[in-house]
TrEMBL record:
Motif 'HIGH' region mapped to chain: 122-132
Molecular function in Gene Ontology: arginine-tRNA ligase activity; ATP binding
Domain Arginyl tRNA synthetase N-terminal residue range list: 5-84
Protein name: Arginine--tRNA ligase
EC number, as in UniProt: 6.1.1.19
Localization annotation: Cytoplasm
Annotated Pfam families: Arg_tRNA_synt_N, DALR_1, tRNA-synt_1d
One Gene Ontology term from the biological process aspect of the record: arginyl-tRNA aminoacylation
Organism: Dellaglioa algida DSM 15638
Protein biosynthesis found in the keyword field: yes
Name of the gene encoding the protein in the UniProt record: argS
Enzyme class: ligase
Nucleotide-binding is among the record's keywords: yes
Amino acid sequence: MNYKQQVAQALVAIVDGNLTEEEIIAKIEIPKSSEMGDYAFPAFALAKAFRKAPQMIAKDLVEQIDQSQFESVAAVGPYVNFFLNKSAFSQDIIEQVLSNGSKYGASDVGHEGNVPIDMSSPNIAKPISMGHLRSTVIGNSIANILAKINYNPIKINHLGDWGTQFGKLITAYKLWGSEAEVKADPINKLLEYYVRFHKEAEENPELDVEARAWFKKLEDGDEEAIELWTWFRAESLSAFNKIYDMLGVQFDSFKGEAFYNDKMDEVVTMLKDKNLLKESQGAEIVDLEKYDLNPALIQKTDGATLYITRDLAAAIYRKRTYNFVQSLYVVGNEQANHFKQLKAVLKEMGNDWSDDMHHIPFGLITQGGKKLSTRSGRVILLEEVLNDATDLAKKQIQDKNPDLPNAEQVAKDVGVGAVIFHDLKNERMNNFDFVLEEVVRFEGETGPYVQYSNARAQSIIRKAGDVTISESNNELSDPAAWDTIKLLGDFPKIIKRAAKEYEPSVVAKYAIHLSRAFNKYYANSKILVDDDQKLARLALVQSVSVVLTESLSLLGVNAPKEM
Ligand code: ARG
């Protein structure tokens, strides 16, 4: 039974047809503190119809209402406050959690519809940036959340493995590079060549001419060009994979920009057939004035294609391959215009499914309030961050629990989990400052705090020893447990909201609230005392652990049982 509906039905019976059940549901509020009730109905809503002061109406309603199914119903000023029956509610929720286990909160909103999620997508021959980290962890969490409501997410790493920069890289390598150097330290060396290219090209425009020629060769399938490109790509990918392993993120596809090289002629032909291409200074563009957007540059003078051309081919490929119900792009907000153009061009081509494509933007990670950038030298190397976070976690664990078995693995779960959690607890559009010591704290709104709360729940269960926690007979009337129980009941709603808003922070904030409520309960109650509610309390503790573990799992964070 849906409890809000129960309240609405009790009211509908006594409002003389002045409000429908839906109207009442829309008006029902949730009081700030559960001391004011679990639901509240504002009697203002009936003031016109009943021609009375809301305070009077509230009193009358309380007198008429069938109170049997509630713990109590009270008029407070112009509000009718409903207090749910704690015993029945706790039994109901705990049973749902324990009988469903990790499937608690699942639903069938998605009907197995395919949802490709374009995520991470770093650029070959460059270090993976904090922006790519955000895309990776946000995309991964959205995939988990969508899967939970029965969509079929497809995680695509649209690698930046094509484009004029490869012409530059090959030129630079041929001039200054060596195989041994690259083998020893691929990403840094390749970046170094690339940076040197840009510096020297400022003085020597010949270099740009040569780079364009090399990219053209690459697009035309020249053997040497392809060989170098393949090698650079493989070296970069293995460096990226190391980071993905640390983060525990897997992909369903690594089809990057290069994959669409032989699929772009078709796009250009389609655009031509639809009379959408216009020549502008030798280049081919699509005019997007009616969308209030700058023209999309599709093909350069020398015939070379662009980022957006490859994205057009990719969007069409994804529609054909997956017949998606939604197609998501988890990419920084600085590319908002690109995705507007992409959708507009597809729409102009007559593809109404472009309405199902959504750019999921996110804000910047800053340091000392300043934007990170390769050029300014303000870079954070992801691998270092994850290692430092793990070291910091290890130190704290050693202080708290020197005999912990598996300490290495737990430190990784906590350190890496802290970095992921910190990223996801912020609404994705917010910029945030990265301070490692803040991220790995065991108190406050952090991943380790949630993990620690779960480990504490697990340790209570271990201490209880040989008991059988059951799904039934868990009528807990203890007011101290009430906030925790209600939060457990909110979980299915939380997941749906997070999915609808593509907002993992909804789940992360929920996990913090649940941890807080549980820690307060634990501090004020003797859970293991031998009385007739002991098993019900343990069932609640177990339920908390199930839901915290699952919340963390939706965020892509592990939940150690002991720490
Ligand atoms: N490689 C690009 C970058 O690092 C991101 C690609 C995003 N995905 C896409 N389909 N455009 O900026």
